[in-house]
Write a structure and sequence with these properties.
The structure is a single chain. By secondary structure, the chain is α/β, with parallel strands linked by helices. The protein has one domain: Rossmann fold (3-Layer(aba) Sandwich). It has 6 helices and 8 strands. An 8-stranded mixed beta sheet has the order 1-2-4-3-5-6-7-8, sandwiched between helices. Strand 5, helix 4 and strand 6 form a beta-alpha-beta unit. Helix 3 packs across helix 4. The chain is globular, with a radius of gyration of 17 Å.
Length: about 240
């Protein structure tokens, strides 16, 4: 598997990124990292997905705040310094900025010589679960599948909640929720599921028993290997059904 370091020019700057491929034309996938950004753990995850038969782009979605590593040590988002760093990373990624960036990432995949023509998939983790949904809504017809694992704030009160974008989505959706997740509590999951039913598209939404926020990422304190493997199989099933 080839790991290429690439730079993607967006309207707001340059996103340093990694692109995984085997030198053949494969269906394209946009891999969006969790709040901790690009590091060995998710580079391994992106490469493993590419080995399953895909051309995978993993951009530094936090390029406005700097290049990886984004943290020098494990942050505590409950203290002032941790909250400040969280705001530095997430603050610039408004809904509008997310769409501008996604346009550049999608174009990279659509124009790359190692990406098969046709629709692409997107997957987000933690903070970027909502970004995956926003990307699917922004590019109907180009995004065939979108997945979110332990995604936060997928349903919140107010006009900017990602669930409001469901009528614009043509993709097949998958939501793998964490148990007892402060960023996506049980009542928010229930309300999201109600919105998904009203939407009427093809989707699956489930909570992973005993799996807590961050369970899919190997360097997370919440990593749950059996449930992470199950999540990976669900992701492969989604992309196999929609992209191949």
């Amino acid at each position: 598997m080839i790991e290429d370091a690439v730079e993607i020019r967006t309207q707001d700057g340059v996103a340093d990124s990694f692109f995984y491929h085997d030198g053949k034309r494969r269906p394209g996938v946009l891999f969006l990292t969790d709040i901790f950004g690009i590091r060995e753990a998710n580079r391994d995850m992106a490469q493993r997905l590419a080995e399953a038969g895909y051309a995978v782009l993993m951009p530094n979605i936090f390029y406005r705040a700097g290049k990886p590593p984004l943290f020098q040590s494990k942050p505590n988002f409950d203290d002032e310094q941790g909250r400040k760093r969280l705001a530095e990373l997430s603050g610039p990624l408004t809904a509008e900025a997310t769409q501008r960036d996604a346009s550049a990432y999608v174009q990279f995949l659509k124009q790359n010589q190692f990406v098969r023509r046709g629709p692409i998939g997107v997957v987000g983790y933690c903070f970027t679960g909502a970004m995956a949904l926003r990307t699917a809504a922004a590019f109907p017809g180009q995004i065939a599948a979108a997945a979110s694992f332990h995604g936060g704030r997928l349903f919140v009160d107010g006009p900017n909640s990602p669930h409001h974008l469901l009528p614009e989505v043509e993709a097949r959706l998958y939501f793998g929720h964490a148990a007892d997740d402060r960023s996506m509590p049980a009542d928010a999951i229930e309300r999201l599921n109600e919105a998904l039913k009203r939407w009427g598209g093809e989707y699956e939404s489930e909570t992973y028993d005993g799996a807590h926020h961050g369970w899919t990422v190997p360097d997370s304190a919440a990593y749950n290997h059996p449930q992470a493997e199950r999540a990976f199989e669900k992701l492969k099933e989604l992309f196999f059904a929609t992209l191949t």
